[in-house]
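dude i think i finally got it to work??
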Amino acid sequence: MRGTPCVVAAALLAIGLGGPACAASDPDALWRIVHGRCVADQLTRHEPAPCARVDLAGGEAAGSAVLKDRRGVSQYLLIPTARIAGIESPLLLAPDAANYFAAAWAAAPLVGAALHRPLPRQDLALAINAETGRSQDQLHIHVDCIAPETRAALDRAEPEIDGHWRPLSAALAGHRYRAIRLPGPALGDADPFRILAASLPDPAREMGRHTLVLVGDVHDGQPDFILLDGQASTLSWLAWPYVRIASGSGETLQDHECRIAG
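look at this
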């Protein structure tokens, strides 16, 4: 979330822990909120506040919390209750690792609840930013509406998307992505982190440069998902107007104003 530092600052303000909304964010702020307050309150008072949900059914090592973000009307963050830095962490590929994308998709109905209307799966997207595209050193998945422009582009690209990784011919929000279709109404055992890692020559070195966006979809009348993978630019020393830098923030494919819901 380095590309959007105001997100965490606003979340801190919402629970009385923050300073100015656009102040430099503390990279451990989310961890302190979830571990120090949400988990502690759940364990001692059986209340998840200031989080919306805390799931400790599998213990803190495999648990997760859902925190409402004040940026936008319906954005939530899915955050592990274990200390996991981000997409580059080898803990995500451990044999007993929790499927945090599955937990984030289970929290997606909160988006519609915030808008006081149910949303079709095609309107929802989950995003995790690359190591260079975030401000927090605690893994968090953005849960919100998809940008209408992204939805329209994916609809046009439908013939290009199947069960194998393939580059999309058109850019999304000005950046290049590849896509793969994942079957089923829920993720089940399909873990986007593992799916990405299996496609990389050296996951230990490469995962941190990637950003993932999971989009709800319906294909041939059956519910499924589109998983998008983008990379942060290695040309970070160049700047506008000479080149458009790929920041590795797949979150830009979401819309925190949720225009798609009308």
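The chain has one domain: 6-261.
im so relieved honestly
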